[in-house]
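Researcher: I'm preparing a figure for a lab meeting and need a structural model of a single chain. I don't have an experimental structure, so a prediction will have to do for now. The sequence is pasted below. Please return the structure as tokens so I can convert it later.
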Amino acid sequence: MTIDNLRKANDETRSAWDANAAFWDARMGEGNDFVNVLLLAVI
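Model: Understood. Here is the structure written out token by token.
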């Protein structure tokens, strides 16, 4: 994979993240039971 391909993939990922960020912020807020379960598995 070339550096140009990596940059393009990064830009596409960032665009997808940005497009969905407001939804996830509204849905998850500061966290919920799902997030707490994930964090408990790490702690």
